[in-house]
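Supplementary Methods. Inverse-folding protocol.

Structures were first reduced to a discrete structure-token string of length 281. This string, shown here, constituted the complete conditioning input.
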């Protein structure tokens, strides 16, 4: 599986430098279990107290020149360091505190959400890697802006859906009463509507990617037209007027096909643009 599928999904508003910091942290790929703030505080305080005891024993060892006391003081410092280190927030927690809600870890999504994210990323990768995109033939869509924003919007909604789905599953694991169902039923309907909407957005991305691939294929065929002069000369040498006419008609059809496929790709991409957003115009 491609590495980019498991990369954290970063809000496009984050600077490129900070985005690289976030996606380059391997620890983000698999979130480890976090200690509670109370447990971290316990270890931090214990480490500080143990450090004070170690300093006190070190003072006694210096005055009395006692090796056993000196050994105990060193041991106390080591334990203090371990406790303080355990009490520190993990790298993941520190990054989350630093960048807030500016990234989403795929490992935090359930199978349904992760499947949609993979489909969306695959479609975006396909568009980004296409020749028509690299040649600037899709500039009307501003893919460099629109696609990252679309991926972030999808990931953000999926992350929220996962949390709500887990909340509903937990509620349904308890005794199910009419009162509970009266609350859960409309919430589940709202969640299902949201899931349907996000799935539609992914399908639109995939349709755009398919249209772009069709435009790529037409572009490759169009480039082969450069060889047509050799075939015209060949037909002219054999006095094949019908063949020349047929070849010319094929050229005209292919020109129209390329133009149509590009228009179709651009039209499919326009659907991705948020109404009122002028960045892709």
């Amino acid at each position: 599986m491609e590495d980019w599928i498991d990369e954290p999904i970063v809000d496009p508003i984050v600077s490129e430098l900070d985005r690289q910091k976030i996606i380059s942290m391997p620890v983000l790929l698999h979130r480890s279990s976090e200690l509670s703030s109370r447990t971290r505080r316990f270890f931090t305080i214990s480490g500080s107290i143990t450090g004070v005891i170690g300093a006190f024993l070190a003072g006694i060892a210096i005055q009395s020149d006692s090796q056993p006391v000196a050994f105990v003081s060193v041991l106390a410092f080591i334990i203090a360091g371990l406790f303080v280190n355990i009490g520190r927030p993990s790298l993941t927690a520190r990054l989350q505190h630093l960048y807030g809600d500016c990234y989403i870890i795929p490992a935090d999504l359930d199978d349904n959400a992760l499947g949609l994210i993979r489909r969306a990323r695959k479609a975006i990768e396909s568009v980004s890697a296409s020749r028509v995109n690299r040649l600037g033939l899709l500039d009307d869509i501003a893919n460099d802006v629109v696609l990252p924003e679309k991926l972030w919007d999808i990931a953000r909604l999926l992350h929220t859906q996962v949390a709500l789905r887990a909340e509903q599953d937990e509620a349904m694991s308890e005794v199910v009463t009419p009162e509970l169902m009266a609350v859960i039923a409309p919430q589940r309907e709202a969640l299902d509507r949201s899931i349907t909407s996000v799935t539609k957005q992914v399908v639109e991305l995939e349709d755009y990617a398919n249209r772009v691939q069709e435009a790529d294929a037409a572009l490759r065929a169009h480039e082969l037209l450069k060889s047509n002069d050799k075939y015209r000369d060949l037909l002219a040498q054999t006095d094949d007027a019908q063949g020349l006419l047929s070849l010319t008609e094929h050229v005209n059809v292919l020109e129209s096909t390329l133009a149509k496929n590009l228009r179709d790709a651009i039209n499919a991409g326009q659907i991705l643009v948020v109404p009122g957003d002028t960045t892709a115009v």
